[in-house]
Amino acid sequence: MNPAAEAKLLRLLGLGVRGRGAVVGVERVREAASKGTLVLAVVAPDVSRHSLEKVLPLLAAKRVPVVEGPGAAALGHAVGRETTAAVGVTDRNLARGIQEMLAEASLRWPPGGASDADVSGSD
User: Which ranges carry the Ribosomal protein eL8/eL30/eS12/Gadd45 domain (predicted)?
Assistant: First the structure.
């Protein structure tokens, strides 16, 4: 991910967490996905396989778009933690803004996967 896109993504996620439009951590992301309130997930690429196995199948089953974010330390720092494996966006407008920014930077992940889902549905 290019540095400008990464910085913008981290700022947006930080704002989302402070505004209660995002949840932090694998368990909170799983809870939001299970409840149907999760609109987008940002996952650190350097997390353990175990963490990925806990969250990615559920996100795929719920058709939640997944974006590969920066490393766990940078992702955690942006949301007030030392590290975090995942941040889940529950605010539809924030998710739309993140997807639009990433589309401009051509950074969707995984290619052809659930990230192609549209988050612009009605609120």
Answer: 13-91
Where does residue 41 rank: exposed (0-12), middle (13-18), buried (19+ CB within 10 A)?
buried
Amino acid at 118: D
> For the domain that residue 9 is a member of, what is the CATH number?
3.30.1330.30
In this structure, is residue 104 part of a structural domain? yes
Regarding pTM above 0.85, the answer is: no
Identify the three-state secondary structure at position 62: coil
The total number of structural domains that make up the chain: 1
Query: Domain range spanning residue 84?
Result: 3-108
Beta strands in the chain (DSSP E): 22-24, 40-43, 66-68, 86-89
Specify if 113 maps to a domain. Answer: no
Give Cβ neighbours of residue 54 (< 8 Å, ≥ 6 apart). 26, 30
Over residues 9-31, the pLDDT tens digits come to 999 999 999 999 999 999 999 99
